[in-house]
Specification:
The protein is of the alpha/beta class. It folds into 2 domains: 4-88, Winged helix-like DNA-binding domain superfamily/Winged helix DNA-binding domain (Arc Repressor Mutant, subunit A, Orthogonal Bundle), CATH 1.10.10.10; 114-213, Oxidized Rhodanese, domain 1 (3-Layer(aba) Sandwich), CATH 3.40.250. The protein contains 11 helices and 8 strands. The strands form 2 sheets. A 5-stranded parallel β-sheet has the order 4-8-7-5-6. The longest helix is centred in the first third of the chain and has 18 residues, at 4-21.
Length: 226
């Protein structure tokens, strides 16, 4: 019969597998990207700015801890988060870090000081403006991420395609851009480009997961562009 001490040692050793798997900044970034939807190794490597070989090694570590799953699609291997629990875990870990680690606020402030006029739009304010038809809401993530789930009424305008859509954007409304959450810079870049072209544009700090965490609904599948 297993002793109480051996039992506790064995259980906490299994818990530690999760901690070991996420104890690397690039693995956390890969999980954050997968929180937006499934990706191939090649796409993950590009978005995380690492080599394909490095991405594969990190993904194997995450898979060994049962945090991600993979599936072969032709000549490509596609990865996804194992389930909603993993996404919830990542969100809880992030909010804990924000609460306990002052360095996060310092790093964020230093980055945003380079964009001193980048005023974020609060959730309540945005919701009121969207419902009243006073703003144009842009989802500047990829089209795949948009189809997987987006804020109601948002237009699909990936950052890489923003320039070609600018002539179609209304000039008599405020424009609000959002992306993958408070630490995603796609919306920051989108707002800078829009303002450079004379638009009144703002950034929404929240992404889809933050929106859902408030109990608000999202839309899926439909592709609504300009």
């Amino acid at each position: 019969m297993i002793s109480s001490r051996k039992f506790k040692n064995a259980v906490f050793e299994q818990f530690a597998r999760i901690g070991k798997a996420v104890g690397n900044p690039k693995r956390l970034e890969l999980l954050d990207i997968l929180g937006q939807g499934e990706r191939t190794v090649e796409v993950l490597a590009r978005e995380a700015d690492i080599s394909i070989a490095s991405a594969s090694q990190h993904l194997q570590s995450l898979k060994a801890a049962r945090l991600v799953e993979s599936e072969k699609h032709g000549s490509f291997v596609v990865y996804r988060l194992a389930d909603q629990h993993v996404k919830d875990f990542l969100y809880s870990m992030r909010t804990l870090a924000e609460d306990r680690l002052a360095e996060i606020e310092v790093i964020t402030r230093q980055y945003m000081e380079r964009h001193s006029d980048m005023e974020p739009v609060g959730r309540d304010t945005l919701r009121e403006r969207v419902l009243s038809g006073q703003v144009t809401l842009l989802d500047v993530r990829t089209e795949e991420e948009y189809r997987a789930g987006h804020l109601p009424g948002a237009l699909c305008v990936p950052l890489e395609s923003l320039e070609q859509y600018m002539e179609s954007l209304p000039t008599d409304q405020e424009i609000v851009a959002y992306c993958r959450g408070p630490y995603c810079v796609l919306a920051v870049e989108a707002v800078e480009r829009l303002r450079a072209r004379g638009f009144t544009a703002f950034r929404l700090e929240d992404g889809v997961h933050e929106w859902q965490s408030l109990g608000l609904s999202i839309e899926e599948n439909a592709s609504q562009g300009l």
